[in-house]
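Instructor's aside before we start: the two examples that follow are unrelated to each other. I chose them only because their records fit on one page, so don't look for a connection. First example below.
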Amino acid sequence: MNLRPTTSRSTTRMLSTFFEIDRDNLPQPVINPDILTTSDPNDVADNNVSELLRTMEFAMSPAPAEESAVDDFTVLLLRALGYTKRRRVPRTRKVIPFVVCSEDRQAETDVCIIDENGILLLVMQEDKRHMDSSYGDPEPQLIAEAIAAFAANNQTRQQILGQHPLDSKVMAGITMRGTTPIFYKIEVTAALVTAVAGGVYPEALTTVYAHIPNVPRPDRRWREGMEPLDSRAVIISCYEAFKKFVN
């Protein structure tokens, strides 16, 4: 089932609109300052920071025919930013079963964050077109993962937690091309899950909000990623602002 006709996409570069903040002032990231000021992994004493910066280098130089280090880098960055503290853990290649057109299917995230109750809070999908052009745009797959995660979460609420299912939820998502993210807020409803399961188009469109960070050199965002310190500061501040939607 092609999900594109069921969605309405809105891309905004306005920070205040997407991140729901006053004006366009991004928050200061709560992170080791060496991550913001160090280019060479050999120039930092902290082993965790050195590992993150080294993995960033690998993520920016993917091999054509193999899975890149993007997933590894994403996990390290989310951990450094405090996305996975306390009762949350990152998972890679998490399989989420769901029903499409009356058939059992699976969505597989590249990275996700899951809480102690098994509730999926964030899904990430890498842009794999460097491996094979047949992979296509990662956005439809991310949307499918968000729908599957919402359905799985409701099942967990009912069968394990003894809670009522949610009628709707804004699911947090990220696509990654190298080390450059696009942030997503995907409005998933129980009606959409039912429509997808039955193979019919829902009566209401699903709204997908996306934000591409406003880096200093937009024409080189994919090539430079987070390697330049000025771009890194902007992107990491966007991660900090996005944290509140991962709930």
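Example two begins here.
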Amino acid sequence: MPLPNRPAPAMDVHVRRLLNRVSIALAAVATAALLYVFRRSSSSCFAGHGSPTYASLSLAPFPRTSCDAASRRVVDPDLRLVKLQDSPRWRRRDAALSASVFAPLRRRRLLGASSRVLCVAAGAGQAVDALHVAGVADVTGVDLVDFPPLVRRADPHNLPFFDGAFDIVLSDDPGALTGALFPARFAAEIERTVRRGGAIALGVDRHIDVSTVAHLFKKSRIAEVGNGTLDGSVVSIVILRSNGTNTRPH
């Protein structure tokens, strides 16, 4: 025989009502919090209604707010270059390259105003700029990450240039050769793109034996080894002469 329906105890009814009210209150608080965050982000991220310009432009290395993460203005490359060229560190690097790298190349009559120069692992383009200052107009800078207007993006292991396209290939970064993923391929691509009789100038960590460089650059011969100071560190400046042009490996 089924049991007769009994009314729910008064305590259960009160509990349900309390839970419903708490749920409604929490939903209202959450909605108010979202509206507050949205309104605050809108007012702090944007300069004005309908304006695409952001007012929050942090110069910190890492963003401190979501606005900073999403609203960094792209700096004009030419203005950025002007600021870099005015820095003491940039000027010191230019002077060091001129004295340690360009001078021996000029002395050997390997570098002139009409020389075609490729700068590999060019970074921000200091060597490119230093060559321009030295009167060399035809200079191309490449690196894994582009840095306009001086450096374009290209893989040093697979350079997008014809065989023998340059008179000189320069890599002034001491870590470029030893830090390359495939040093032998890195060297082979440099040799491929320099013309027969052209020059290769390398900044190499002074702890690296010159015989290691000679072993990697199989189509070239070492013409001169000197010392230079780049960014406060003493490095070996190795100048090689190309005996021939490598073909691109398949």
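The longest strand covers residues 194-205.
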